[in-house]
Amino acid sequence: MDSGLKSHLRIAIVAGEASGDLHGAAFIRAIRDLCPGTQVVGIGGERMVQAGCEVFFHASRLAVVGLAEVFPRLRDVVRAFQKMRSYLKDSRPDLLVLIDFPEFNLLLARVAKRYGVPVFYYISPQVWAWRQGRVKTIARVVDLMAVVLPFEEEFYRRHGVRVHYVGHPLLDLVKVHLCRETFLRVVGLPPDCRLLALLPGSRLHEVERLLPAFVGAYERLRSEINGLQALCVRAPEVPMELYAPAFAAGVKVIDGYAYETMAAAEVALLASGTVTLEAAIVGVPMVIAYRLNPLTYFLARRLVRVPYIGLVNLVAGEKVAPELIQEEATAQRLAEEARQILLDEDRARRIRARLAEIKNSLGPGQAAYQAANLALNLASGRR
Questions:
Q1: Which CATH number does the domain housing residue 38 bear?
Q2: What is the residue range of 193's domain?
């Protein structure tokens, strides 16, 4: 530990979604390694709890996609905000750490500034994609931004935000612990099977909208390709009953083993989001699907300013993985895109080689420790 750091810091943290919970947990572990005795409290999920965070409000009650989906959970969002606002006012922690979740977090950052609490933003809101005017708010209320995508540093620096590129934390988190043969034996599949991975998202609405199409695509493909099996990975916060379409089609639904499932698969059908970078790091060719509430999508089309929806494609600067959006995300279209990869070994090999290049562009690793060190220095007033 840096001898200049205060020994008993109090850090408030907010991660409102599953990916934020994953990165928040790694960040908290790094904080505790670098500065034992640090108290971390706030909003997060089960992984952050296990890492030692005292959670005031569980992130699963806040995780939504899009404007229209917010309204059914508005009461929970308001309660969570009030809880954090009261904590900042009454306890005045040494630092507020915000992880993505921009609509909530940027409002909370304003509260922190009002009470003299420094603000550290880890994992940028995608303001470079839509509503870029928010970068002015970030420059005003965020003391230091730690970004994880290669192109973000220049964007924020150009807009007057104090920023550091720390690389992507997934490089340290995405680990395959079982070889293919062992994994397939564990999940009860034959060792010589061809595997299609189904990862329909980490939120209730994503699974409801995407899983039937994913399962339908598998049913089409298995009638054409001998030995094809499918595995569906359940998101921790999504109840098992929402996976009924998979059970009805004879698809195994498993808890955990997401990276082993990807590594064993020839193709993955994925919801858009962080999972596309996880798949790139593992090296599995993928087809990305995205379905929103129609109103949310109508608004998003007029606001979004990037050419791709998949993070893997944004980092690559080209369409490495097919993207099927809204009405295009059907079982037929998913099957067509997956079939082209399953039946063309040369194409699959080229995609895997490009994914390896994308992985190498994400930095040297240890992003959580780099971010934690920056945060601790900020919390200790050593800016």
A1: 3.40.50.2000
A2: 180-360
